[in-house]
Amino acid sequence: MSDQEPTTRYAVLVPVKPPAVGKSRLAELDAGASRRRLAEAFAQDTVLACLRAETVRQVLVVTDDARFSQVLSALGCTAIPDGVSGDLNATLRQAAAEAHRRWPDLVPVAVCADLPALRSDDLDAVLGVLETGRPSFVPDAAGVGTTMYVAAHDEFDPHFGPGSRDAHLDAGARELAGVPASVRRDVDDPADLAAAVELGVGPHTSVALLAANPTP
Question: Per its record, what are the GO molecular function terms (predicted)?
Answer without folding.
Answer: nucleotidyltransferase activity
